[in-house]
Amino acid sequence: MDILIIEDDPVIGKAVQKGLAEAGYACRWIQDGTAGLEAALGQKQDVIVLDLLIPGVAGLSLLEKIRKDGIKTPVLVLTALGSVDERVTGLKRGADDYLVKPFAMPELLARVEALSRRSTIKPSAVLQIGDLMLDLPTRRVTASGVDIDLTPTEFSILEMLMRYAGQVVTRKMLCESLWESDWEGTTNVIEVHINRLRTKLQRGSKEPLIHTVRGRGYALRASA
To answer: CA 96, CA 72: separation in Å to the nearest integer?
Structure first.
């Protein structure tokens, strides 16, 4: 996977390039927006890591230009501008993800990997874990062929859990996915929906599908 880094800070740029290279990615690092825009228009990269405060063409302008040109390359904004308004503006201008400085390299690597997956893998219209099936076009959920009646919120929670089957999905991830991109409220409300969903899925089953991971969140695992 090829990564284009547009970052004028030599310390951060070098660190990001080194971290991505050590993770096995091919990286190109550019330190100004004018050259960065030219490279981005070439569409030769799988993900773009973009700082907003760069010389030449500013980061937000670069974003707008490549989106207007029809370029769909995933863009991870990496910047010190971390207020809610600034993040919302970046996302509305065309960013796919937003990481505020200072940041941890493992998180940046995980976000780059996630963006790459989104751009190369078309989400399946039907999700299946064991005998549990979720059909997105029809909004139908069945277990062993029996329909399960879910509310819209329960359906959305189950979809996310099934997409991340076997992995921990945090309460905050669920809240942000369901209600708003910058959720800052209590996550306790999600427990009510999880408990109702767990009860509906467990009917006729000896073991629960949704498991609570103490202090972290929830994981959906098929019965053995």
So the answer is: 10
